Amino acid sequence: MNRLPMLENIFAQPASHRTLLDYHAGQGSTSLQTCGERLRNASGRLIYSGMGASIFAVIPAVSRLLENGYPAQIAESSELLHYGSASLTKEDVGILISRSGESVEVVRLAEKMREAGMTVIGVTNVPGSPLEQLADHTLTIGSQADQLIAVQTYTGTVLTLLLLAEEAISGSSLEFSQAASAMLPQLSAHIDACFEASESWRHWLEPSGVLYLLGRGPALASVQEGALLMHETAKASAVGMSSGQFRHGPVEWVSAESRVLVFGAPEATQAIDRSLANDLYRMGAQVRWIGPSQGGSDSGEHAPALIPWPDVAPAFAPVFDVVPMQVASYRLALWRGIVPGDFRYASEITSAESGFPLFQSRHTSKE
Amino acid sequence: MNRLPMLENIFAQPASHRTLLDYHAGQGSTSLQTCGERLRNASGRLIYSGMGASIFAVIPAVSRLLENGYPAQIAESSELLHYGSASLTKEDVGILISRSGESVEVVRLAEKMREAGMTVIGVTNVPGSPLEQLADHTLTIGSQADQLIAVQTYTGTVLTLLLLAEEAISGSSLEFSQAASAMLPQLSAHIDACFEASESWRHWLEPSGVLYLLGRGPALASVQEGALLMHETAKASAVGMSSGQFRHGPVEWVSAESRVLVFGAPEATQAIDRSLANDLYRMGAQVRWIGPSQGGSDSGEHAPALIPWPDVAPAFAPVFDVVPMQVASYRLALWRGIVPGDFRYASEITSAESGFPLFQSRHTSKE
C-alpha cells in the first residue's frame, strides 16, 4: 500500500522521537541545560507563546511547571503582540515556539520581548530561522520534518518542552529522557492499534455535525490540537474546550446527535471527567473515552473507549492521546475525498497578518 | 406582546446598568476604590478567574490592564484549582467572579488562594454569598438579576470590571462612569435595532451547521460569550476563537456553507480583521461583520455588516457587540421550538464538579 505523506509522518513519530531524545541527551544537552537554568532563575513570569499547533504543544510542559510552583502562562502570540506587550517586563522570560521559526506574530513578539529587556528562548525546528536571530537562546526541537500538517513536529515539540521543564524543575532531564525512550515501542504499538481500529470509527466520525473534544490540564493539548487537526486535515469543524467550562453551559447543546470525545488520562481530574463522560452517555450522546479503562463499576452505563489505553506513565499521555485524532483526521479526510495534508488557504508558514497566499494565487490566476 | 423573561432581560440592560453605575458612584464607591488600590499596589500577578459567562466578562478589563502595563491574566477556575494552585503566591491578587457567589470551582479556588496568602477580591451579584465569606474584599456587581441565562448580569459584570480597571489605572472611575451613563440611550437604540433586524437574520442563522465567532483583544469577550449563548439558549453549537488562531489552520474548514461572524470593533487590529472578513467573503463563506463600517473601498468585495454599528467609544464596544448574539440566540431558540432561557441539564448555579442536577432529577423520576 502506498501511504500518503501524512500517514508516513504519523507512523514515523517513534523513530523521529528517538532521534530527538538522542539529540537532546547529546549534542543538544548544553542548550537544554542553559534554557532550563533561565527558567529556574527567572524572577518574573514564564510566558509561553506561539500560534497554531505550536501553542497547543506547550500545554503539558506549562501544566507540569504550574504544578511545581512556577508562574508559567500561555498567551497566543497574536493577542500578546497587539494587546499585551505593554505588560512585558525584563524580569519575565519568553519561550516562543515556531516550528519554522518564521510565523509572523511570533517573530514580531520576539522583537517586542527584546525591547522590553526580556530573556527570549526560541524553540524551533529550523536552525538559522528568523526567530533564532532574535532569541537569546535557541532550543532546537530536533524532529524530523513533517509534510505540511504538524504531526511528528507537534509531538516532538511536546517532548522537547517537557524535557526543558524537567531541566528547570529537577536540574536534569536524563531520567525523563530515558523513560521517554523506553515508552517508544509502546507508542509504535499504539499507532498501529489506532490505525487498525480506525475503520470501525467511520460511522461515528463521518456524520457532518461538529465533534466536541473535552479534557483538563495536560490533556487540553490533545483537545486543542485534535480540534485543529480536524479543521486542517479533514476540513471539518470541531470544538475543543475544557471539561470544566463545558459543564458550565455548553452541555445544554447535548442531544442524541452529539458526538463528544472526553480525554481523561490526567490523574488529578480523572474521576470527575469519567463522571462527565458517563453522564453524557446516559443523556444519550455519542460519547467516546480516551484514557485508562473505567474499572469494574456495576452500573453498566459507561462511555465506551475509543481505543484501548496502553499502560503508559501519565507524563507521556499527551504523546499518546493525540494519536487517535491524527489517525481520525487522516481517515475522515479520505472518506470525504480530500487529500489529507493539503492546504487550501493557509500555508505551512504564516508570514503576514492578513491575506492567504494559497487562496490569493488561485483567486488571481482565475481572473 | 408577551415577552419571555430572557427578552425582558435583554431590553432591561440599559436600565440595569444605570442602577449599577449609580451604585458604584455612590454607595459602592468605597469598595470600588479599595479594590482598585489592591490592584494598583499588587507586587505580583492579577489573576482573574471564574467559569462560564463570568470568565468571558473579564476579558475587556484584562485587555485594558494589559495595555496599561499590568501583569493581568485570565485562568479558568476549574483549571487553576486542579493544575495551577501550587503556582499561587502571596504577592498575587485574585479577582474571582461568580454571579451567584456559589460556583463550586470558584469557591474552592478562593480557599486555595487564601491558603497561599493571596489577597482575594470576590466579584458577585449576591451579597452574603459563600464567595463573599472567603474574600478579603467584595465588589458587588449591582446588576438586576437575570432569569437563568446571564444577560444583564453579563454586561453588568463587564462594566463593573472596567470601572475597577479604571480605578486601578487612573485612580478614579468617575469619568468612565459618566461616559458609560451617557452611552446608555445609544445602547437602548442598539437593542431595538438588533431586535428589529433579527427577523432578517433567520435564513443566515437557522441552518444546522456550526457558527464561527472570531475576534481579538476585548472583542474576544463577545466572541466567547456569544458562543456560550448559542449553546445555552438555542442548544446550538458554535465555535469562539481568536482571529489570529483561526488564520493559523482552522481557516481550512471554510467553504460556501461556512457561517462566520467577525467582531472587529477594537481599533488596534481592526484593519487586519476587516481584511480577514473580506478574504473569507471572497472565499464564498457566509460572513457577517460586527463593528464600524468598512468605509469607501472600491473593490465592492466587502463582508456585509450584521447590524449598523452605532457611533460608540471603543471602550464600550464589549457592551454593544454582544447584543446581536443575545438577540440571535433568543430568536434561534424560538425558531427551533425551544423556550429561550430554559436549562435542560445544567442549572443556574453549578454547586458540584460532577453530576447534572436537572438531568439526574428527571432521569431518576423516570425509573
From TrEMBL, chains A, B:
<dbReference type="GO" id="GO:0006002">
    <property type="term" value="P:fructose 6-phosphate metabolic process"/>
</dbReference>
<dbReference type="InterPro" id="IPR046348">
    <property type="entry name" value="SIS_dom_sf"/>
</dbReference>
<dbReference type="InterPro" id="IPR035490">
    <property type="entry name" value="GlmS/FrlB_SIS"/>
</dbReference>
<protein>
    <recommendedName>
        <fullName>Glutamine--fructose-6-phosphate aminotransferase [isomerizing]</fullName>
        <ecNumber>2.6.1.16</ecNumber>
    </recommendedName>
</protein>
<dbReference type="GO" id="GO:0006047">
    <property type="term" value="P:UDP-N-acetylglucosamine metabolic process"/>
</dbReference>
<dbReference type="GO" id="GO:0004360">
    <property type="term" value="F:glutamine-fructose-6-phosphate transaminase (isomerizing) activity"/>
</dbReference>
<dbReference type="InterPro" id="IPR001347">
    <property type="entry name" value="SIS_dom"/>
</dbReference>
<dbReference type="Pfam" id="PF01380">
    <property type="entry name" value="SIS"/>
</dbReference>
<keyword id="KW-0677">Repeat</keyword>
<dbReference type="InterPro" id="IPR035466">
    <property type="entry name" value="GlmS/AgaS_SIS"/>
</dbReference>
<feature type="domain" description="SIS">
    <location>
        <begin position="35"/>
        <end position="179"/>
    </location>
</feature>
<dbReference type="GO" id="GO:0097367">
    <property type="term" value="F:carbohydrate derivative binding"/>
</dbReference>
<dbReference type="GO" id="GO:0006487">
    <property type="term" value="P:protein N-linked glycosylation"/>
</dbReference>
